[in-house]
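Narrative of accomplishments. A recurring question from our advisory board has been how the design workflow behaves on a single, concrete structure rather than in aggregate. To address it, we present the structure tokens for one chain from the evaluation set, followed by the sequence designed for it. No filtering or post-editing was applied between the two.
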């Protein structure tokens, strides 16, 4: 991961690796994950290889299938 002064930056490459590693950990193929996430296999392949950016909707579908949540936090603010 890339770090700047005090915050962690999520890059397309690091996100791709997280998704790919979790999919492999669950022992499911790209085809299976794509079907379960209601996206194309090509789109998933491009995301896993950091060849493309994606929408929050698509990322949300993938994360839901893999058991992840997406959180946005404001610095220094408790919500």
């Amino acid at each position: 991961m890339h770090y700047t002064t005090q915050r962690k930056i999520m890059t397309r490459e690091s996100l791709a690796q997280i998704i790919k590693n979790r999919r492999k950990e669950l022992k499911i193929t790209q085809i299976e994950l794509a079907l379960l996430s209601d996206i194309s296999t090509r789109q998933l392949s491009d995301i896993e290889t950091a060849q493309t950016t994606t929408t929050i909707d698509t990322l949300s579908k993938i994360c839901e299938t893999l058991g992840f949540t997406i959180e946005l936090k404001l610095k220094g603010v408790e919500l």
